[in-house]
Specification:
Shape: flat
Distance between the termini: 107 Å
Largest sheet: 8 strands, mixed, barrel
Number of helices: 10
């Protein structure tokens, strides 16, 4: 055989041998790289003639092509189990009790946290351990009994048996004092109403005293004073607001009405635009405060109003004070006839409750109202927000904010709006 041909045959045989050795080596490495579980799966697949080649997709994402795609069906905890329905607690009753000053407020609530209406509940009371021989009954069946002119002392209150309900065995105790307690009422939620539940045309009747006192020299322009902070105040009367545009227009703070006490019935009513306004303002980066239009006729009612303000504002970042708005309600408001002493006590009770909760409190009123209807010496420790529509304020008392017009225009607000300047940068 020619030597050249021999060399060619040797070369071919060598190449074949190398290829065989390389393939064997490759297969051994693949087997060593598999987990025991993978090897078992592969063997099972081979036995069933369903072994598929590894794809580049499997290699790229390090997937196991031999895994059982239906294995999750064997896992009892893979799927979320349907949540068991909460048992109905509507027939399980309990009492919520609060007091401010020589009064007791009793709420009947069920295990679902709702006030129970439609039943004439009756209660047994003991004072300082002695049973009171009198029947206390929820005659209007609204699930709430309000007792006034109570003597100071420790009271035990027990709900009498009523058919169809599970009544608590134990009494609830409360201490009644002659001195007013400027503390937040935890059960204030049960007193708050929406405008769907009342007649707003006869309840929301605040009269802007500053407009009545206006002297014709006011301006609806921005005041060019670099030492003050520019802001507005809004309520449902300003309708839908584009707060991003308001922010872009240069508004630095907004005092937002959270609600009012009804001028006729005294109901506590949430402003229907409050939640939307305060969220929109804070999301836009505008600092906020809150005001509440009062029609309280006693300090105890002012504590209720402050409690409502605090309850509604607790989930938001509040920078500016929480104000009580004290002004007239057209002459027929339930608080229009208050004397100066009582009105001052109302404002003080509101502010004390706010400050005891850790917030800054303030009083909003017109110049004439501050002079004639309030004793400002007793309220001097709180923020004063003066409303006077004039070229320059002429009120000689101390004040921290000035509302100088109700005829402002702001991009993002379709109505006229109140302009304010703050001498404090909260």
């Amino acid at each position: 055989m020619d030597s050249k041909i021999k060399l060619q045959m040797i070369a071919v045989v060598s190449v074949v041998i190398c290829m065989v050795l390389g393939l064997v080596l490759f297969l051994n490495q693949e087997e060593r790289g598999k987990s025991p579980q993978q090897m078992q799966t592969a063997e099972t697949a081979e036995d069933n003639d369903i072994l598929q080649p590894v794809s580049s997709f499997d290699e790229k994402y390090e997937l196991d092509p031999y895994a059982d795609p239906y294995a999750f069906l064997q896992d009892e905890e893979f799927f979320d189990r349907e949540k068991e329905e909460e048992p109905d607690q509507s027939s399980v009753l309990s009492l919520l009790i609060s007091t401010i000053q020589r009064d007791i407020r009793i709420y009947v609530v069920n295990g679902n946290g709702a006030q129970v209406e439609g039943q004439a509940f009756s209660f047994k009371l003991k004072k300082d351990g002695e049973e009171i021989r009198k029947t206390y009954r929820d005659e209007d069946k609204d699930g709430m009994l309000y007792l006034t002119d109570m003597e100071s002392g420790d009271y035990e209150i027990k709900l009498r048996e009523v058919g169809g309900f599970e009544v608590p065995d134990d009494s609830v105790t409360v201490s009644v004092t002659d001195e007013i307690s400027y503390t937040v009422l935890d059960d204030i939620t049960f007193l708050i109403r929406s405008e769907d539940e009342i007649d707003a045309t006869v309840e929301d009747t605040a009269v802007n005293e500053a407009e009545i006192d206006a002297d014709g020299t006011e301006t609806n322009k921005r005041l060019a004073d670099g030492a003050t902070v520019f802001g507005i105040d809004v309520s449902k009367w300003n309708k839908e607001i584009d707060w991003e545009k308001v922010k872009a227009a240069g508004v630095e703070f907004a005092i937002i009405r959270c609600g009012y006490r009804g001028s006729k019935t005294g109901a506590l009513v949430e402003d229907p635009y409050f939640a939307k306004n305060i969220k929109g303002a804070t999301d836009a980066g505008i600092r906020v405060g809150i005001y509440f239009f009062t029609q309280a006729v006693t300090p105890a009612e002012a504590v209720e109003e402050a409690s409502m303000v605090l309850m509604l504002s607790k989930q938001y970042k509040i920078s500016y004070p929480l104000f009580i708005d004290t002004e007239g309600a057209g002459g027929n408001g339930r608080a229009d006839g208050l004397d100066k002493e009582t009105r001052t006590a109302v404002c003080k009770a509101f502010c004390e409750t706010i400050e005891n909760a850790g917030y800054t409190a303030g009083v909003y009123a017109s110049k004439s109202w501050l002079l004639n209807n309030l004793d400002m010496e007793q309220l001097s420790s709180y923020t004063t927000w003066l409303a006077q529509y004039s070229a320059q304020p002429t009120y000689e008392g101390d004040y921290d904010m000035w509302q100088y017009t109700s005829a402002g225009k702001i991009d993002g607000i379709s109505t006229l709006v109140d302009y304010n300047v703050s001498y404090m940068d909260y």
